[in-house]
Amino acid sequence: MWGRVRGGGGFGLAARLLGMAARPHGGAQGRTHGRARSKQELFSTSSVLSKDKDKSAASKDSTHEGAAKRKEDGAETPKQQLLDIIGNMKVEVSYKKKLQQLKASESKKQATKKRESLDIEGSVPQGITEDTQRGKPLNPELVKAASAVASSLPCNKKQTVSELLAQLRRHEETTDKQKKGGTINIRNVISEMTVKRQSPAQRGARIFGRISLQLDEDGQRIRRERSSALSMDSRRSLKVGKRLNIFTKASTEQEHALETVSSPTIWDLEFAKEVAAVTAQPPRNGFEEMIQWTKEGILWEFPIDNEVGMDDDAEFHEHIFLEKHLEGFPKEGPIRHFMELVICGLSKNPYLSVKQKVEHIEWFQKYFEEKKELLQEI
Amino acid sequence: MAARRVAGGCWQRALWLGLGRRCRLPGGRDGYRSSSSSSALEKTVDNSQVTQEIVLPRRKTWDKLAVLQTLASTVNRDPTAAHYMFQDDPFLMPRNAASARLYSLSKESGRNAAKYIIKNFPQYFDKTFAEPNVPCLMPESLKPQTEGVSEEALRERIHLRMVKESVDMFDQLLQAGTPVSLETTNSLLDLLCFYGGGEPTPEKEQEEKEDLEEPGVNASEQKAPKRQFQRDSQSSGPRWRENNHAERIFKIMPERNAHSYCTMICGMVKHGAYSKAYDMYIDLLNERHKADVHTFNALIRAVPYLKERFAERWELAKEFLTHMAQQKVQPTLLTFNSVLKSLRRCGGVGRAMSLLVLKEMEALDIEPSLASYDHLLAMFYKGADAQSSDIISEVLNEVEKRSFTAQDPDDADFFITAMQVCCDLKDIKLAYQLNKALEKGDNWKFLDVDRLNGYWSKFFSLLCMMEQIEVVLKWYKEMSSSLFYPSPKNILDLLQALDAANQLEVIPSVWEDVKQLGFSRRQDLLEEFLCLMSRDQHPSEIQLAFAKCAEEIKAVHEPAGLGQLPLEWTGSALGHAVVLFSRAGRTQDAWNMMEHFQKISRIPTDKVMDEFLNCAKQTNCPDEAIKMVKLAASLGLMSSQRLKSRIEEEFELSETQKKALESIKWDGDSSDSDSDSDRE
Lengths: 378, 680
Prior knowledge:
The complex is a heterodimer.
Chain A: H1 2-9, H2 13-29, H3 33-55, H4 61-69, H5 76-92, H6 95-122, H7 128-135, H8 140-152, H9 161-193, H10 195-212, H11 220-229, H12 252-261, H13 266-279, H14 286-296, H15 316-320, H16 334-347, H17 354-370, H18 372-377
Chain B: H1 2-23, H2 28-33, H3 35-49, H4 66-73, H5 97-120, H6 151-159, H7 163-175, H8 182-194, H9 202-212, H10 223-235, H11 245-252, H12 258-270, H13 274-286, H14 293-306, H15 310-326, H16 333-343, H17 347-363, H18 370-380, H19 390-401, H20 414-425, H21 428-439, H22 449-466, H23 469-479, H24 488-500, H25 507-517, H26 523-535, H27 540-557, H28 571-583, H29 587-599, H30 606-618, H31 622-634, H32 639-650, H33 655-679
Helix pairs in contact in B: 6-7, 6-8, 7-8, 8-11, 8-12, 12-13, 12-14, 13-14, 14-15, 14-16, 16-17, 16-18, 17-18, 18-19, 18-20, 19-21, 20-21, 20-22, 22-23, 22-24, 24-26, 26-27, 26-28, 27-28, 28-29, 28-30, 30-31, 30-32, 31-32, 31-33, 32-33
């Protein structure tokens, strides 16, 4: 039983899930040998089927083919319709969502399964068909698998879609009820019953849960259910879980107000040093050493700038090109010539600021203005 | 300086060209340089103006480090060279981790010694040669400028961190009846609390000196021992003494504000007076003051020392957090890191709660730092019960996405903890992922020299365990000596990996490295080498190389220089050596080794003796063979008879040799009879 179910698990994720769901069931059923065989068939078939379905998530045709192979001719049409319905459902939900649903329903599955097996054990033995029907509505894969098996059995050829759907709905109701109220009780029963058998299966489920916990928000509701139902251990992930709910987010202005008030104390200074020391590593090459020296102020800064140390904000061209200050002078003549020589000298003088140079030119302008009459006399 | 400037001029021109073409950011000056280029630029600008307005900066100001940073980013690690800091002096190239540590510490301590001289004798350093002046090379003025007793002078002494002088000055002021302002008293309290109550011991002064040094100048390898020192001093019992200056001054303060309480609490926590700190906090609450966030952080860090049981610890930490919320103190990253750090000492409770804390951080938009992850990993992977790798892989996925800057002193521990976890989980994929994260951005800076060695040594052991031998050897070639110095355990791991991959022919080169690393006197390593080399028969060239290694190993066991005691042979090592020499056909060497058996009174195994005989036969040395039988007989071995008959069969013996063999026979008989009698 184990080997076969697990073998099915190798085919695909969904199939593995089914395998896991089947495990505890199988464990309990091991006691009632007569029934175990038919169940086993059911699960091995289902895993094969779901493998097919996994392969062709987009095109469900192959699923139908796979299913059809196992069907007898009479029941084909209603079966296909049902599969179509289920298949459409599949297409609508995203793959991620599907996984989450699987994951969420897995605990329910276990619960229902367990109770079923209890029922079966305790109550009047039912027919194989009913047995398989009871397992169906747990999830679509099971439905599909069960219908396939049922159709393959000679006495159940005439099963119709409506019957199946009615069955499905009824079981949905029961699972919902259990989800709301009785889950914990049932879980207790289960845990008491199959301590040893369940622990590896649960671990597997936990691992799977961790994998899928990082999925999108669609599954939030389910996650919450899970976390309440399962023990603390299953929530070992950074992405899920509650917060402490102690603090509320502060507005940025408040923070700024706080920051500006306090002046750095010795604590702050030393802490800053300590933090800086964490990443202060010795230089790995000559350039890094030069960076360090530059920061310390030992090295001349790169790119070397010939305006370093010049305090006035004037730029280089203002120092060099001084013709624009000669507008007040005559356009030609000895004064112009003289002034051109003056600005030529000034432009080469690095020791004067621009302001001083302009003042210098203005002095000449004033001087020539004052002497204008004299000059004109000459 | 002049030469530098000229070179710089070239630089500048090159940069301008690059700037104009690539960045399309013509500075004001660029237009004046060449009209053609500026018109070309205008065209490009015209084109782009169609889509959006581009504001041309009048001038591009360069970061003074930009050029150097670009250049530095072009330099990769040289896998054949030691770290840059060792390249000054080829004589001082470290050979192993211990010498690397010693040399780097020496270098730094030399620097510190120079600084100490400059600091203590500033009068000899009054000339400024550099133009412009380089302040960091000049002595700082640590003499207080203000004379006399006044609050001004007190403030200056506090600023210069002169603990004792400040306290004396404060007392003098009080005796003189001059009131000291609350602000000044608080900063005095800060000083006293930071240095643990202000009883200046030589130890403390030393620490103070170190603290005074600028972090930038003080390269980091110095930090590791310093941190260790601080840790030690913290763990060596509470240094906060009853009624120290801080407490005394606190008591006589006429009025106290929240800051006075807070700094007292921080000081008490820092110096191990945890329950006092808690009492102080209760006082603060009674006085209806509010604590600041640093105080809460300190208190939360003190939680494990305040309560015994895990659940109580968590309750107390939660209480502090609730108080913070009540007092409207916004938590910082450090608050949550403190919580996580305390949770590390809360066992299972910590594991469960840490995730809630992380969620709270997320809700408050506080990004976890490496320290947060470090605490988390330490909690989840404590001991051997770590099985699942989901937490660490989630953490690594987060770390991969971000680049980190140091925010918490504990940040530095992350990478080494994570690598330890990878090793415990034996998960090579995670280790690769972690290593990728380490290589990203400036993350490498979180590993100082010591941690770097630990990290790589762990990584290398994991590689040896899990990887293909080709990959291991590639890593080995790239890492060893340039990135880290393999430990003896790493070498053992490597040998095991070689053994597992059946690549024993690499052993001679590993032996060369071992000699380089200075592990040639490690008995366990030598044993492993000899054992692996002698286990199987190899092609003759490899056997020759092995024999060479064996000879070197033999040399270690022989008295060499003065003061170096030779290693003691062990029986198995001797046997391996004999086998190695025999297989290489070095009969004489093998015989020399054989003789050692008698000296250390050990017995060679049959395999060893057979190998030796084979060798003697191949090289046609019946004399040695006979000597061996003699030796076996004298040791009273039962196999001596068998060996003798082998010799008689396989060797062509001369008459004298036959006689010699016969003469042994008597010894052998006696020993045989001895053993026979033993048997009976």
